[in-house]
């Protein structure tokens, strides 16, 4: 599949599960990884289900959000990445249509899906209910070395025209990865954390020992606490 070919994520469905529209007090957006499906993401994150929580899960065209080329890093203005980010934005619009605002919506992505969610947070900073970047990083930070954030990371600008004072307003963000995961380096995780903090995120970096490319029990526990806090805030 060529990068020159227009991406077609918008023709793919967005699945909805969980609470019905009139009973929704919070929302969870789950973005699957490469080779997976929207239904698979709903199944993976089923332990996060709670009464009053609506779940939205977009499907990528042919099961991947963007083609991966070894040795080539994604640029923020990559048309595939832009089209992927648009699907996350559509999920937020679906949540708003059932009465759930961004401040009560938690965004979670795994692997390629994590990078899509990370890019969405950079392009559309505002207060969200929370975010889980699981086994992924901000595109443009996948450095090979375990050193400080490189120049590309620190100088990374927002690819879309956003007001300069827009921030994540303290949105809690979990950046979780296994220390045996070959696709996420500690350097890239630190660089991603720095980017989120510069945009006003409240970031927790979680490296789980003896864990590969997977979602750890500790990450699930963090997300469960965040979702419960969001749902409780809707009843006050």
Automatic annotation (TrEMBL):
InterPro entries tied to this protein: AB_hydrolase_fold (IPR029058), LYPA1-2/EST-like (IPR050565), PLipase/COase/thioEstase (IPR003140)
Instruction: Note down the stretches annotated as region Disordered.
Output: 135-170
Pinpoint the Phospholipase/carboxylesterase/thioesterase domain residues. 20-139
Q: Which SUPFAM superfamilies match?
A: alpha/beta-Hydrolases
- The keyword Acetylation belongs to this UniProt entry's keyword annotation: no
The text of the family note is: Belongs to the AB hydrolase superfamily. AB hydrolase 2 family.
* The protein, known as: Phospholipase
């Amino acid at each position: 599949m060529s990068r020159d070919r227009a991406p077609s994520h918008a023709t793919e469905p967005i699945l909805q599960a969980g609470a019905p529209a009139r009973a929704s007090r919070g929302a969870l957006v789950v973005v699957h990884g490469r080779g997976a499906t929207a239904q698979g993401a709903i199944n993976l994150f089923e332990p996060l289900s709670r009464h009053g929580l609506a779940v939205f899960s977009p499907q990528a065209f042919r099961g991947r959000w963007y083609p991966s080329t070894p040795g080539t890093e994604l640029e923020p203005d990559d048309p595939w990445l832009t089209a992927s980010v648009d699907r996350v934005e559509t999920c937020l619009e679906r949540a708003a249509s059932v009465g759930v605002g961004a401040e009560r919506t938690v965004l979670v992505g795994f692997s390629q899906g994590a990078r899509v969610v990370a890019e969405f947070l950079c392009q559309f900073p505002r207060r969200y209910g929370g975010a889980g970047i699981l086994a992924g990083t901000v595109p443009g930070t996948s450095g090979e070395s375990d050193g400080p954030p490189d120049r590309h990371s620190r100088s990374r600008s927002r690819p879309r025209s956003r007001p300069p004072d827009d921030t994540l307003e303290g949105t809690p963000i979990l950046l979780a990865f296994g220390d045996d995961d070959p696709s996420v380096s500690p350097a890239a995780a630190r660089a991603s954390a720095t980017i989120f903090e510069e945009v006003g995120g409240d970031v927790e970096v979680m490296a789980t020992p003896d864990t590969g490319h997977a979602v750890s029990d500790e990450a699930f526990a963090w997300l469960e606490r965040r979702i419960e806090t969001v749902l409780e805030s809707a009843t006050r």
